[in-house]
Amino acid sequence: MHRRLGAEFVTDWNKNELYLNDAKEAIDSIKDMEVRGKVTSLQEDLFNHVKNRDTAKADKVFKELKVIAKTQTERLGKTTATVLNYYRFRGNGHRYREIERIEEIPAAKQYNFPAEPGETTEDRVELLLAMADWKEKEFQDRMKSEIVEPMNTASSIADLCKSYDIDSSSYVYDKFGTPVELKDPLFAFGGGAPNNILVKPRFGPPKGYQRALAKEKEGMKKMGDKWIGLRDLNRVTFELEDPLMLTLAYKALMKKYKVSGLKNKFEWVHTTTYKQPPDIHMDLDLGEGWLVEVQLMFASVLTVKKELHKFYDVVRAEKPQAILSPLFKVAQTIEAVKDEEIERMRKMMESAEVAHKMNQRRESGTASAWGEGAGERIKELEGKLAAWKTWAREALEKFEDSPEGGLIDDHFSSSTWSLKYTSSLRFAWSLRFGDILNNHEPA
Predict the structure, then answer these.
(1) Of 280, 291, 290, 276, residue with least CA distance to 252
(2) Which domain of life is it from (predicted)?
(3) DSSP alpha helix (H) spans, 224-259
(4) Region 191-215 average pLDDT
(5) Which of 154, 175, 265, 297 could covalently link to 278 via disulfide, CB atoms 3.0 to 4.6 Å apart?
(6) Poorest-confidence range of 2-6, 28-32, 162-166, 281-285?
(7) Could you tell me the CA-to-CA distances from 396 to 134, 338, 435, 439 in Å, in that order?
(8) What's this model's pTM, rounded to 2 decimal places?
(9) Exposed e or buried b for every residue in 56-95, given b needs 16+ CB within 10 A?
(10) What is the pLDDT of residue 386?
(11) How far apart are CA 332 and CA 417, in angstroms?
(12) Spelled out in words, what is the top-level CATH class assigned to the domain 98-299?
């Protein structure tokens, strides 16, 4: 990509722009509020059926929840692949380039206490969980002081690399010879102005005894002597927004710790779906053979993972009693739902400008720069405007009878949204948001 200037360069640049737009739309659609609401309603039915000992009805609802969960895990797997393009193609791709090349390391066994006569698997798991409790403070303190703080306080890429004895020659300039910023606004958390946050630690809660025991027994049954034990009793996910920082965090961990296992879940061959959210999964030796789990993951991929985990709980449930507690917050008010929908609409309206930009270039004679499939993609975006308008009407109908029914109109009373489409799109609109909600045709 970008091997020479001219038509090839323009085609690749526009293709990346399309990938980015699709990725942004995918990020906005991670949480499907309608499905969430349906799942919560079905779970409430399931709970009542089990409470009333109506086995037939409970089984029926349980199967329906299973179907929804399977559909959602498949949807989120495809969403993950699209979301990943947001990180793969932002900028000129320089910051992402090394991630898929990170080599895997075979996993080692977790620390094993000397065997005691008559000791059971239950005894060993209780001992491991106690060990994890004693190790947790050291683990968190070291992750913060040895990784998070040095990365977030570094003044430049050269400074960061120096603190970990990393060769900076591959990172301070991109492939065009342009200096690379450490805190580029394009890669800041939340977008916009740069900040000092490059990495956020998300420490996992203590693993419960029942879950740890089940995992240990399952591993022993499947793997026998090859089973490597519970290596995630102390765990952290490092959330990052910048692909280059993910690479440097990996290199820093390699320098600071003995790495006793590494799985690279990013696909070298671009895939259309993921069974597991892509990350760099590492087992670190904290000392004396005690292994801890560290995952390096992009922020939006972590959002997908959290949503996916909810449905995965349903997929792996063996009986209705396993999913009686609500997967999603039942205390969520209609106001909170509407705020989510309003934000979703705002982002959709912004991304509609892409259709306008594409059409302008087509009419100006640069259509060939888009490559094959451009016309179909433009028609797809044209159709989305009509779909968004329909969605807006349904959203208004959904909320207009509620006590907070005036929220949407009040919220957007001073907001102006402009959608400028040329004649070939058969639109030349400059509409107030309320006009779309109320289905008013522009003058």
Answers:
(1) 280
(2) Eukaryota
(3) 243-256
(4) 83
(5) 265
(6) 2-6
(7) 54, 10, 12, 10
(8) 0.71
(9) eebeebbeebeeebeebbebbbebbbbbbbbbbbbbbbbb
(10) 60
(11) 29
(12) alpha beta
